[in-house]
Write a structure and sequence with these properties.
241 residues; 20% strand; 7 helices; alpha/beta; 2 domains; three-stranded mixed sheet; six-stranded mixed sheet
Length: 241
């Protein structure tokens, strides 16, 4: 398997995480300091409004920067990253298969000689249920404590369809009209501690450990035209081409 990863993008996101994290800390500590200072009263016995509004501003900015930096750290700094997990899960495929990471609007694309997979990854753990397009995560104290450090869960089905649409538009723009290349969206959970309950789903949902076997079973059939395949490799390579 050939892996093409946008290392430049990863490095940039890591850099932003290293910049924003201390800024968030300074803002929050500054807000705390001003909050203490705001307890001082004027000669009339009223609370010093200047300190109060300064505290509010610093805490709000600190909260915003903290959320952004936590998201960056969780997605780009903490290892294994999604791209690393996918590369490990797909290890064993030969060099005719390509894994693209962060090279296009769709974060992960796996190209086989027979098919294209638009992979949407989720790193959550714990119990998760899916029924059609509806997702459910039971409340837990641990999840509440990790709220600001955990990536947004959203609606994986909607996100996966958006990613697939982005890949389809790229293919449609470069391939001839008679090139019927199968495209399938996948939702892959990269955290081994996730407990999935799948009642029904329009888009395949699976753990990373099951990804290789799933693709082997679903990529059977005639290989696409070589020129079409090479054009897709060039297109999915994005700015790295």
């Amino acid at each position: 398997m050939k892996v093409i990863t946008n290392e430049k993008k990863i490095a940039q996101r890591k850099k932003w995480a290293s910049i924003l994290s201390p800024i968030a800390m300074v803002l929050l500590l500054g807000g705390l300091g001003l909050n203490i200072a705001s307890l001082r009263t004027t000669s009339s016995g009223e609370v010093n409004q200047t300190y109060f509004y300064g505290t509010l501003l610093l805490l709000v900015l600190g909260f915003i920067f903290s959320n952004i930096s936590s998201s960056l750290v969780n997605h780009w700094v903490k290892e294994p990253r999604a791209d690393q997990t996918l590369q490990k899960a797909l290890k064993g495929f030969d060099s005719k298969n390509y894994l693209f990471n962060y090279t296009t609007k769709a974060a992960h694309i796996f190209l086989t000689p027979q098919k294209v997979y638009a992979i949407t990854t989720k790193g959550q753990n714990g119990s998760i249920e899916v029924n059609g397009k509806k997702w459910k995560r039971p409340f837990s104290v641990g999840r509440l404590l990790r709220y600001f450090a955990e990536e947004n869960f959203g609606n994986p089905t909607f996100e996966a369809q958006q990613n697939a649409d982005a890949v389809y538009k790229m293919m449609d723009a470069v391939l001839p009209d008679d090139a019927a290349v199968p495209l399938e969206p996948l939702i892959v959970f990269t955290n081994p501690d996730v407990n999935l309950t799948i009642h029904s789903t329009e888009i395949p949902v699976l753990k990373a450990a099951k990804l290789k076997s799933f693709i082997r079973e679903n990529s059977k059939g005639p290989a696409m035209d070589r020129d079409v395949f090479l054009k897709l490799v060039e297109t999915f390579s994005g700015e790295l081409a």
